[in-house]
Amino acid sequence: MGNTSVVHHLTLFLLLVLHLPLFPVVGSTGNIISSGSTLSVDSSPLKSPSGNFAFGFHDTDNQDLFLLAVWFDTLPNRTIVWSAADNETSITVTRGSQLKLTNDGELVLYDHQGKELWKNFQGSSASKGHEAAILDDGNFVLRDENSNTIWESFKHPTDTILPGQILDMPTFLKSRLSPQNYSYGRFQLPLQADGNLVLYTVSMPSENVQEAYWASITFGHTSKLIFNESGYIYIEEGTKKIFNLTKVAPGPKEEFFRLARIDYDGVFRQYKHPKDESKACDFTWKEVESIPQDICLVITGEIGSGACGYNSYCARTNEKMECLCPEGYSYIDPNATGQGCRPSFSLPSCVADGWEVDTENVDFKEYSFTDWPLSDYDVQIGDEVDMQMCKDLCRKDCFCAAAIFNGNTCWKKKYPLSNGRRHPSVNRTALIKVPKTDVSNRLGKKDQNSANIIVVSALLGSSVFLNILLLLAFILSVYYSYHKKLLLQSVSSLSSTNVRSYTYKELEEATGGFKQTLGRGAFGTVYKGVLASQPKRFIAVKKLDKMEHEGEKEFKTEVSVIGQTHHKNLVCLLGFCDEGEHRLLVYEYMGNGSLASFLFGISRPNWNQRVQIAFGIARGLMYLHEECSTQIIHCDIKPQNILLDEYFTPRISDFGLAKLLLAEQTRAAYTGIRGTVGYFAPEWFRRASITVKVDVYSFGVMLLEIICCKSSVEFAMRNEEEALMDWVYNCYKRRKLDKLAENDEEAKNDLKRLERFVMVSLWCIQEDASLRPTMKKVTQMLEGVIEVSVPPCPWNYGSNSTNIQISMQ
Asked: What is the model's pTM?
């Protein structure tokens, strides 16, 4: 009877199990997601075996938005240590979003509509992901069926690193915008390709590097930033520790959690947190180390807003750095105080009815030990200069927004105020110009009363005749404004891009009469100069040749398009001159010259540095082709047109200039080349349609040069029967890629990536333009986001198209 009961219960249990709905299976340990499974916003997060860490969807201050993240799960504040991010910022999602480990072995984040938002970066691994797990050290990993790790969050940090994490060069940590906003902020900490660990300010949203305010001054070919299990952070070159970041004992790992983070205020801090609340007086994160010691004083660059945003000042209060607004100013974003302050009154502007015209309305707020060291436009020095005189000088000057006084010197400041700081070592007093109490209200009422009087007078004094005149005047003004708008459309668009118009005389003086030549190219000659208004900043002035004289509107329209492009891998256009027959463009000056001089010099550049340069150029071209408001085909990609800034970041120059030349002149410029075809796609010589694929071809040739450090032009001159692309293809076909890396041990030790780069370049130089990938796909293949299939032979040997000879008849 008992056996019958047992069988009956087992039968019922099996039937119940069979009728249960089928859900994706999460691993039995609770820390694994297997192939084909999904994790949604409403799912329970994955837990590490110890339970200290969790991976899943973490809520933000906005309860409707979530981050795909890793966090400390046993701490009350559930501190986030990693989140999924694209090239621009961390990714937030809404309910209905899900992460899936696809059958192709990729981790893909989809939004509630099924749109792909993020995909893991698998590098060069050809293995498929079989399962993903959160480990006890906080590392979220993707493993293949042999349990080999093929992707891990530790290799793709956001702003935080953990014990056990090792950063290879080059790797970036990027600060968030505020404690609660995980968008990228204004600071970066890269372990550079030269082994130097550097803290930078960056301009947003372009992420152009502005100012280094701390550096380890370490250099090496194999440097790593190590956060070891004992809680110490240091830089190691080979097996030798060359720089310690942790100077204070971080406490035993049995008692404390640890992390290090580049915070939203630009300080790289190391923290510890007690594990046991019962044994801690203060159960919070405590600072162990901070670099730099005082962020308020170390940022001194002439460009940018400093540690805090414009019109604010940086100060330490209760051992904490804060960005504060002067009285009369308020935060632009109260939730991101580092974004600066705005005045709560109209600024001094020298208008006839401005509040500052009557000096009785002007007041000053005094701040001791405070300075805004930039934005000077006038100074008074002398024994007779005291604080009252300094106030009077600013009070009577309608341009003056603030003044700085230090005993016998008075600096007048213009708006906006930048790089503000307050510190006992700052022996200066800031005098902020503000309207007296109720002045704004009184002026506002006065303006309203005046407006009412005008309206009433117009109504009472009008007549039929006056109404007719007013109607005609209105019609004429609309007609005139419409046509003026059409004529000045390009000019207005230029003003919106901050591209300035210069006179020819200004640029002639800036370049000393166009004496110092930086280079000559298809579009004109470039000269070095310096503007009188910015004596510490060099510029590059390009005098354009062969211009298409279609008038002022056409030229300014094209300049406007160039001015609207903003990317960290493009040279920034500062201004232009359009005066009579003179057409000039003013660019920022690039201190490290061209990629040509860098690649083909006496010494071979670092392999990792060349890799990063290739990445940067690809991203810049992808932006021109697919991401800027107007698609731009460069038409002249070559090493001479890739410039390197002071940090050896590649910047594409001369983009957008092809449209400023006549079509006939453009074609003549290219078909006039004698000898082996260089960087120019076969389309140029067949009078075929010119598309973005001509740039892809040129990039492919240049990528070969970056790989081999050989000039394709010089190679062709030395080897009349074989071009550089022939030689590379033969090396690839015969599996002799080590020949491409002769005397380059770094490249030889990275043959997998070298082979990937060669395969990408061979796809780019396909004679058939339809076979060439887009620059977006090129970028993804270079970075290992997508696999690179075996490329076909780039050319048809029967047509002898690799060595098209152009005569000068």
From this structure: 0.53
